[in-house]
Amino acid sequence: MAYAGDLTPQQAWDLLTSDERALLVDVRTEGEWLQIGVPDASDAGDRAAFVEWLTPAGPNPAFLDQLGLAGLEPGDGRPVVFLCRSGVRSIAAAQAATAAGFGPAYNVLRGFEGDIGPDGQRGHWGWRAEGLPWRQA
Question: Where is the Rhodanese domain positioned along the sequence (predicted)?
Fold first, then answer.
């Protein structure tokens, strides 16, 4: 089974603020959280978790266990929205979560800061560029 699909950042925020069961999972690295910032889910009941999909050493072998520690249970039908830098790692995370019975699992298109723009920089698209709540970690 494939993940539930892609959401724009605004659609993801709308789901988080309208469904009290929904959880946002930021799958970037700890370094990214600290250097770039994180989504601020305080207006969505603080339903955000930070679980690295990839660690500096490679794939996170505890990823699925850490989703459980974040309050997710396979088969509970709780919506989970995965976010990364540009929307690539979060697709893989959503697919792995779906295969393990979590979800419905969604991917946030263009992630937190989007792909590299024509000026060679990130930040033109994604969660932050759309003006959604975020903060420095």
Answer: 18-121
Number of structural domains, the chain? 1
What CATH number should be reported for the domain holding residue 113?
3.40.250.10
Average the pLDDT over 99-113 and give the result: 96
- Which CA distances in Å does 2 have to 32, 63, 93, 105? 27, 18, 11, 9
User: 70: domain range?
Assistant: 5-135
Instruction: Please give the structure tokens belonging to residue 62.
Output: 């505890």
How many residues appear in the chain? 137
Q: How far apart are CA 24 and CA 22, in angstroms?
A: 7
Q: Would you say 90 and 107 are in contact if contact means Cβ atoms under 8 Å apart?
A: yes
User: d(Cα 21, Cα 15) in Å, to the nearest integer?
Assistant: 9
Mean pLDDT of 73-83: 96
